[in-house]
Amino acid sequence: WKEFLSERTRERQNVNLMQLVYGETESKSTTKAGLQQRGTENDDSDTEFFVPKGEGTKKPEEPVNDDNIDAEDCSKFVNFASQSDWKSQESIESIRSRFVSKGWSKAARGGGSRDVD
Amino acid sequence: MGKVSYMKLKGSQNLRLRLLLATLSSKSIVIEDIRSEATWPGLRPHEVSFLRLLEKICDDCVVEINETGTKLKYKPGIIMGGRHLVHDCGVSRSIGYFLEPLIVLGMFGKKPLTIRLKGITNDSKDPSIDTFRSTTLPILKQFGVPAEGLDLKIESRGVAPKGGGEVLLSVPMVPNSLKAIKWVDEGLVKRIRGVSFSTRVSVQFENTMIHAARGILNPLLSDVHIFTDHKAGAQAGMSPGYGISLVAETTSGCVISADTTVSYARGEDDADLEDDRKDLIPAEEVGEQIASALLGEIKQGGVVDSTHQGLLFLLCALCPKDVSEVRVGKLSPYGIEALRHIRDFLDVKFVMKPDASTGTVTMMCLGSGFQNLSRKVS
Questions:
Q1: Regions of chain B where pLDDT drops below 70
Q2: Which one, of B225, B220, B143, B227, lies nearest residue B189 by Cα?
Q3: Fold for domain B189-267+277-300?
Q4: Of A18, A73, A85, which is closest to B15 when you measure between CB atoms?
Q5: Between chains, do B306 and A77 touch, taking CB under 8 Å as contact?
Q6: Candidates B13, B127, B332; nearest CB to A69
Q7: Which residues of chain B lie closer than 8 angstroms to A15, CB-CB?
């Protein structure tokens, strides 16, 4: 029955994602990005004095609905860069499986002896 | 002329996507409330420039803008294509902004398109010219776009604020339609390539960036080659700057990219802030940042990076009536917007199957049966 349950959860997740994208409600990530853009905008301008309509300071909790219709038209999404420190051994190991040189690069570095330090 | 029914839209968001889809699906649109409440209302120079570009490559399209620029009426015409066209993209957005929709339009023209674009070749907001060459064009080839005639040549580079770059784009037309694909295997990263550039500054900036980027990438992969492209004189545009574009190639032929550029900020015309010149990010930090961004993209999984999701979905939707299946990482905001607009204009809905173990999403859709209509008319 566990399998059955997990199967059903997966089904539901599936529907949820489609609802997020196609449903009337704004999807989470869009809202988040909208807020981020808003955030950077606000950093630049002196919003303490002038609060133009629709550009005002918004609390991150507040849902942005239809008022980000003027969101910037930009396909680039720079969000991953700051997520983890790619110098730390942990994060390097977490991504190593995505590279072909998994085996031999370790060997080349002396059987992974440098992994220790 | 009979009455035209317009599709009503609001706001300046996704203007390129809307105009592109309107043109492809021959639907007239009217967009209201374009920054109607902003300090500087109406269309921005780059948006107007994009409309002019549409007029250039299409026959019989009608663009009407009201006095304040807050309302736009667009009736699409026939995509003509043509040779020896020239367009000045201005300096408010980079050439990448124009290229993204232009390559798709070019494929469905009556004739192959060859156009010279002038402006900013590299900036941090849009995909750079180098990314287009290394990543975007190979993605098109996956869909059966003929490789001959698909080219992007960098004649000179230019960065913000003054630009001065020039590129030559040629897009072949798709004879009939694209080819539906099943593209779900992202493979393993086998090599990383890249191009760094510098204009009007010392080549030392490039070496520092490359060194820093390699510092992050080499522990994972030894096959990392980043080429330098130092420009001087007339080829270097009018402003100093430097940048780097990295691309990871996988065993299954996927290309995943990340790029950035550092230059002085342009005099923002839409913001009321004074020209405070921030210090430029040091080259070493740029190299590390971009290598990290690339690893972040690789970690996401999927057959394309987050920047190209929108393009990928669009191409899938423009396929013949056949099932396409692609796998992407976490949906990017632009990708989601693209999905919504594709539904509105082309009536194509994707089925999404999230894969919890890898964090990727498998997207399936039935193509809209789109054909190169412009060509048929002749």
A1: 1-2, 266-278, 376-378
A2: B220
A3: Dihydrodipicolinate Reductase; domain 2 (3.30.360)
A4: A73
A5: yes
A6: B13
A7: none
pLDDT tens digits along B266-300: 654 444 444 445 678 899 999 999 999 999 999 88
- Cα separation, B246 vs B224, whole angstroms: 10
Q: How far apart are CA B345 and CA B26, in angstroms?
A: 9
Please count the helices (runs of H) and the strands (runs of E) in chain A: 4, 0
Residues from chain B that touch A100, judged by Cβ atoms under 8 A, are 188-190, 221, 251
Kindly identify which residue of chain B lies nearest to residue A23, measuring between CA atoms. Answer: B340
| Residue A20 to residue A26: CA distance in whole angstroms | 7
Q: What is the pTM of this model?
A: 0.85
Chain A residue with minimum CA distance to B271 = A45
Do residues B291 and B278 make contact, with C-beta atoms less than 8 angstroms apart? Answer: no
Output A20 or A10, whichever has higher pLDDT: A20
> Positive or negative, the Cα torsion across B24, B309, B357, B322?
positive
pLDDT computed for residue B376 by the predictor: 64
Asked if residue A54 has pLDDT above 70, the reply is no
Instruction: Give Cβ neighbours of residue B185 (< 8 Å, ≥ 6 apart).
Output: B252, B303, B327
Name the CATH code of domain B1-79 (choices 3.40.50, 3.30.110, 3.30.70, 3.90.550): 3.30.110
Q: Do B75 and B107 form a contact (C-beta atoms < 8 A)?
A: no
Interface of A with B in 56-115 (CB under 8 A): 66, 68-87, 91-92, 94-96, 98-102, 105, 108
- pLDDT reported for residue A17: 83
| Residue in chain B lying closest to A15 (CA) | B352
What contacts B263, CB < 8 A, 6 or more positions away? B122, B123, B159, B160, B161, B239, B240, B241, B242, B243, B280
* CB of B311 closer than 8 Å to CB of B136: yes
Give which of A44, A76, A97 to mutate to test B binding, by max B Cβ within 10 Å. A76
Query: In the 3-class helix/strand/coil scheme, how is B105-157 assigned residue by residue?
Result: HHHCCCCCEEEEEEECCECCCCCCHHHHHHHHHHHHHHCCCCCCCCEEEEEEC
| ipTM for this model | 0.74
